[in-house]
Write a structure and sequence with these properties.
This protein is of the alpha/beta class and about 160 residues long. The chain has a single domain, classed as Dihydrofolate Reductase, subunit A (3-Layer(aba) Sandwich), CATH 3.40.430. The chain is built from four helices and twelve strands. The strands form two sheets. Strands 1, 4, 5, 6, 7, 8, 10, 11 and 12 form a nine-stranded mixed β-sheet that branches. A hairpin with a 2-residue loop joins strand 11 and strand 12. The longest helix is centred in the first third of the chain and has 11 residues. It is globular, with a radius of gyration of 15 Å.
Length: about 160
């Protein structure tokens, strides 16, 4: 399985239910990587998407503790085991974990590839992603040249589980 995330230099991913920053190059990479694939997210991430609607051209899987939660165009699960059972029908390389913090932490042990947009800036944040640079099980296998968006520098990194 894959995961895809944008982090700041402290591995922060969000603040008050929103992304830290919206970078067109990051959004483009996200679209390219996930189009036609399966995306797995938590309820709050689903509700933060444009219009609170599932992303088109993808199988949207939502994990929530709310028993009565429904979302047209999404497949809803209430636990990691039943989500993993559902995901067995898809090739691992076609599955992307897209957040938020709790979903990343729950599914990280099942992922072997992480697509990370690393932003060279420190934001005020309340949600974080585990620091893969400090995890001996992960290493960088690809890195883009430095990109810029106005005065913001970032790069795309691909991490693989060792």
């Amino acid at each position: 399985m894959n995961l895809i995330v944008a982090v700041d230099k402290n591995w922060a991913i969000g603040s008050k239910g929103k992304l830290l920053v919206s970078i067109p190059g990051d959004q483009k990479l996200f679209r390219e990587e996930t189009m036609g694939k399966v995306i797995v997210m938590g309820r709050k991430t689903m509700e933060s998407l444009p219009g609170g609607k599932p992303l088109p051209g993808r199988t949207n899987v939502v994990l929530t503790r709310k028993d009565d939660y429904t979302k047209k165009g999404a497949v809803i699960f209430h636990g990691v085991p039943e989500t993993l059972s559902f995901l067995e029908q898809f090739p691992d390389e076609d599955i992307f974990i897209i957040g938020g913090e709790e979903i990343y932490r729950e599914f990280l042990p099942y992922c072997d590839t992480a697509h990370v947009t690393w932003i060279d800036y420190s934001y005020e944040a309340d949600t974080h992603f585990p620091n893969l640079d400090q995890d001996p099980d992960w290493h960088v296998t690809a890195e883009s040249d430095e990109q810029t968006y106005f005065n913001l520098c970032y790069e795309f990194r691909k991490y693989q589980r060792k």
